[in-house]
Design goal:
There is one protein chain. The protein contains 2 helices and 10 strands; from the N terminus they run αβββββββαβββ. The longest helix is centred in the first third of the chain and has 31 residues.
Length: about 170
C-alpha cells in the first residue's frame, strides 16, 4: 500500500513538472510562431470560405513570418481591426507604403499609402469591412500571415500571394 502511494506521488510530481514546462512553451509558440484560426464571414470569398455559411475554413497563421513587418502585395494577413481592437480580421494586402491606390468607395478616390501602413481589402467587394471603409492600416496592427488552409481536408493548400489585376497600385514608390 505504501509503495502504491509513493508511486502515485511520483506520477503526480512528474505530471506537474511536465505541465509547468509544457504550458509556457506552448503559450510562447502560439503567441510568437504560429497558431490556427477559423475564418468566419464572406469577406474573403472565394479565396476563403467559398461554401459560405455551410463550412468555415481553418487556416494556419504564421506570426514569425511578419515579425519584421515583411509583407508583400497579395498576402492574406490577420490584423487587429482598426475599429474594434477586440476583433481580428483577415484581409488581402493590396498596397504597401508609398503606393498610390484607386479606392472603392473610400472618402478619397485615390490614396497614397503613408509610411508604416498598408492597404487591405477583402476579396468579396461589397461584403468586406476593409481599408475602403477605414483607410490605410498601420503595420503595428498586423497579427499574422495566413499561409495554409488546414480544414476542410478537401481544401488543404498553401495560400499564394495573389493580387487581383484590377487592384494593382497605380504607382509604386521606388
Amino acid at each position: 500500500m505504501a509503495q502504491a502511494q509513493g508511486l502515485g506521488k511520483r506520477y503526480i510530481k512528474a505530471f506537474f513538472k511536465g505541465f509547468f514546462v509544457a504550458v509556457p512553451i506552448t503559450v510562447t509558440f502560439l503567441d510568437r510562431v504560429a497558431c490556427v484560426a477559423r475564418v468566419e464571414g464572406a469577406s474573403m470569398q472565394p479565396s476563403l470560405n467559398p461554401g459560405g455559411r455551410q463550412a468555415s475554413d481553418v487556416v494556419l497563421l504564421n506570426h514569425w513570418s511578419i515579425r519584421n513587418y515583411d509583407v508583400q502585395r497579395g498576402d492574406i494577413v490577420s490584423l487587429v481591426s482598426p475599429r474594434n481592437p477586440e476583433q481580428k480580421i483577415i484581409k488581402r494586402v493590396i498596397a504597401l507604403e508609398g503606393d498610390i491606390i484607386k479606392t472603392i468607395g473610400y472618402k478619397k478616390k485615390y490614396v497614397k499609402v503613408p509610411h508604416g501602413h498598408i492597404w487591405v481589402e477583402g476579396d468579396h467587394h461589397g461584403h468586406s469591412f476593409d481599408s475602403n471603409a477605414f483607410g490605410p492600416v498601420s503595420l503595428g496592427l498586423l497579427h499574422a500571415r495566413a499561409t495554409h488552409i488546414l480544414w476542410p481536408p478537401q481544401r488543404w493548400q498553401k495560400l499564394q500571394p495573389v493580387l487581383p489585376p484590377e487592384r494593382k497600385p497605380l504607382q509604386r514608390e521606388q
